Every structure is written in structure tokens, then in C-alpha cells.
Inverse folding.
């Protein structure tokens, strides 16, 4: 299952990784500078919001998307004809997919930090920040280094 646990109405923030073949990087960039209008519309209509791709010079590709449900967004695109054409054309650009379309073969990364979530948690907490407290006398010199 692709989705993380989020309260109802809060979008899922998903980040994923793929590897673009080094000899295809320039063409990959060119293709994404001119994505087909029907593909753009399909992404928006199936729940892909604030969607970005980031490419390192060695071909490491990181994608980020916000969506009500990543599982539903991927499934929605899988039902479109334009996505089938796009994925077929994009598949040769990637390493290590073993015949799986790029939009199904990506490595989903775990979110380990989100500033707004941390701030919201602080605002809702009555507890003092333990890092703001001086170590107690009986805690010893290593008390703050745990």
C-alpha cells in the first residue's frame, strides 16, 4: 500500500526516487520541459498536486507530490490512455525498472521530518522542550549527550 496514515482531509506528502540513465539525462530534461497538455490535465484531475521532479547531474531523480491519496492518484493515472503512452515513452529513460512502468517502479521514501507538523505539535503541547532544560545535578556530565 502506498498511502501513509494522515488525518482525513490532510494531503499525503510523498517523495520518491528513480534513476535516470546518464546517457538520457538531457533528453529527459527536454521532455519534461514540454509535457503534453493532456498529461498535465490528467495529473491534476487524478489528484497530483504540488508535483515536482528534481534531477541530480548523475541521474538521481527525486519526485515530490501532495495528494489526498497516493494510491488513488497512481490508480487514477493508470486508468488514463495518456499515461499509458507517457509511461511507455519514459520507461527507457530509467535504470532498474525490470519492465515495471516508472510510475509504479519508484522507490517511495519515508518522511522523517516536516517543519509544520513539528510546529503544530509544539503549539498543542503543554510540555516544555527537554532540550531547553538544564541537566540535573545527579544526571552527570553526559546527560545532555544522549
Amino acid at each position: 500500500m502506498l498511502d501513509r496514515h494522515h488525518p482525513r482531509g490532510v494531503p499525503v506528502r510523498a517523495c520518491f526516487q528513480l534513476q535516470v540513465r546518464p546517457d538520457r539525462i538531457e533528453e529527459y530534461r527536454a521532455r519534461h520541459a514540454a509535457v503534453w497538455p493532456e498529461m498535465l490535465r490528467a495529473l491534476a484531475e487524478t489528484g497530483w498536486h504540488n508535483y515536482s521532479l528534481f534531477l541530480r547531474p548523475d541521474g538521481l531523480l527525486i519526485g515530490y507530490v501532495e495528494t489526498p491519496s497516493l494510491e488513488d492518484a497512481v490508480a487514477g493515472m493508470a486508468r488514463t490512455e495518456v499515461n499509458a503512452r507517457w509511461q511507455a515513452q519514459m520507461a527507457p529513460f530509467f535504470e532498474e525498472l525490470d519492465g515495471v512502468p516508472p510510475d509504479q517502479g519508484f522507490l517511495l521514501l519515508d518522511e522523517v521530518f516536516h517543519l509544520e507538523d513539528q510546529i503544530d505539535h509544539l503549539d498543542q503541547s503543554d510540555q516544555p522542550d527537554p532540550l531547553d532544560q538544564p541537566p540535573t545535578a545527579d544526571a552527570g556530565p553526559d546527560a545532555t549527550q544522549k
